[in-house]
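hiii so um. not sure if this is the right channel but i have a protein structure encoded as tokens and i wanna go backwards to a sequence. like what aa goes where. can anyone help
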């Protein structure tokens, strides 16, 4: 298990899913539907949707109105 660097914090939802993460500046909360793959992430002000392929590999991070922020 990786230790979070100083200033970062990780909160687990269960043994397979991450609930929240602090990157040293702000908290980010992950959203799930069914299963282990997150569908979105928010910091309370900004929200993003996460898109994955059929194997669970992340492909795209987009705003809630569909604008692509980052391809992975």
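sure thing!! here u go:
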């Amino acid at each position: 298990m990786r230790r979070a660097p100083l200033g970062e914090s990780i909160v687990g939802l269960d043994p397979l899913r991450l609930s929240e993460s602090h990157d040293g500046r702000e908290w980010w909360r992950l959203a799930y539907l069914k299963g282990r793959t997150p569908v979105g992430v928010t910091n309370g002000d900004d929200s993003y949707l996460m898109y994955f392929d059929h194997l669970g590999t992340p492909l795209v991070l987009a705003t809630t109105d569909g604008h692509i922020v980052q391809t992975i």
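oh and Residues 9-71 form one domain.
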